[in-house]
Amino acid sequence: xxxxxxxxxxxxxxxxxxxxxxxxxxxxxxxxxxxxxxxxxxxxxxxxxxxxxxxxxxxxxxxxxxxxxxxxxxxxxxxxxxxxxxxxxxxxxxxxxxxxxxxxxxxxxxxxxxxxxxxxxxxxxxxxxxxxxxxxxxxxxxxxxxxxxxxxxxxxxxxxxxxxxxxxxxxxxxxxxxxxxxxxxxxxxxxxxxxxxxxxxxxxxxxxxxxxxxxxxxxxxxxxxxxxxxxxxxxxxxxxxxxxxxxxxxxxxxxxxxxxxxxxxxxxxxxxxxxxxxxx
Amino acid sequence: xxxxxxxxxxxxxxxxxxxxxxxxxxxxxxxxxxxxxxxxxxxxxxxxxxxxxxxxxxxxxxxxxxxxxxxxxxxxxxxxxxxxxxxxxxxxxxxxxxxxxxxxxxxxxxxxxxxxxxxxxxxxxxxxxxxxxxxxxxxxxxxxxxxxxxxxxxxxxxxxxxxxxxxxxxxxxxxxxxxxxxxxxxxxxxxxxxxxxxxxxxxxxxxxxxxxxxxxxxxxxxxxxxxxxxxxxxxxxxxxxxxxxxxxxxxxxxxxxxxxxxxxxxxxxxxxxxxxxxxxxxxxxxxxxxxxxxxxxxxxxxxxx
Lengths: 280, 305
Hints:
The complex is a heterodimer of chains A (280) and B (305). With 280 residues, chain A is mainly α.
């Protein structure tokens, strides 16, 4: 380690340092300029948006946000997204946590593969028959159908994220619990589960983000009463013209909350997104 | 024992559940996921042999044999171009994302001031709602008011049509996908790089290997499993891409179907034209393609092992 440090200290040519700095700045600007542009546009009047002289300096207005929330009922859609996100995450944990535990403890690789199949199948090839089946049973437009569809993505995600967490809890701890009179399932509930809280937090946050961002399932299965934010944003695309200010205010209303949550829980989000990828 | 004994029936169930706990604990998830896969697939296969159109009443369907499959597989106007676009889109975006992702991961690997801030920024495109990202880029690529043409103007270049120009739409959408998902590759590779052992690299340093040699002969082979994982994950997701395409070009993939992939084509057939039988045949063919890709991947893996 010391060797590496010494060598790299002598090797890092000033030109390389400058190049690296410039390259990092380019990457950051490339990622952030589109987002800033979108947020700026959401505070512009429809006249200012068309004026290149007012790209950065303009008089901000909240009129677009008023359109979004007062005229387009985004409060309702916000609430729907929240209900469906929290609901599907809670039910998915109920199914996914025990499954992840058993798969990890009993190395049920084939079972793991079946659950992960769900990740691979294109959503479109499932949503078409789901729509038909849910339409027969009269569930289209209610919360049940959307939550079930979102759970279909969340359960495998939760299993995938939690397997390594459960693998890392030593079996000896559970055996000690069993010596003290717990049943094997009791040992899982009272010993292993409390030790895996960080993993469950990671899985929950990821599951909520995936549900919040989900478009295709919600587009097909929600009705006017249960519409979620990603579906509601399509309202701004008219046949004749687009209300750019309103559209960008809606875009910001959907993306900014989830970005703030992710920055706040950065550690969990990163470990959840990269879970399992290291073992191949 | 001060505690009251639970009833005998419960004790019997508890013993049974504990003895079979591997299946008791996995059954709910397995049945849920299995039912939501198997029932729809059986139903789709059934529909694909019928003439179902406009509504799904059983009385209104008639058995048409392989008619839907013949018309899908001989359709050189919509189906095969859509299949080609799906493959082209996947290959191009995944290749660009892997190369760019590797460069950025290597750039960010060693500590620097503001590293935590930059890693936070990397996360933003990833967690943003894909539909909203599509809307955002719709504005940025708007020919008269968009940022893209403003940048071209600074460099004295003529403006372009971007998404609104049929011949530029697909590359533009590929760019948006690369913008959103390259950070995913970066995160996975950074995690992989952080877990690499240091000894082989130190040994190579002592032997006087150059930076490039150390990357190509030491770090890349060690990182290979992570690279494959990122590649598989991104390929699977790119193949399924729907949200960005739909939010930027709508059903049908534009007036000339210029960005219509199989995902968009199947959606349009089913929900716009309500040709359910035809759409089901498209889905079965698409599903078979995915399975073949998976089987190839699986064969490849077992051969390596």
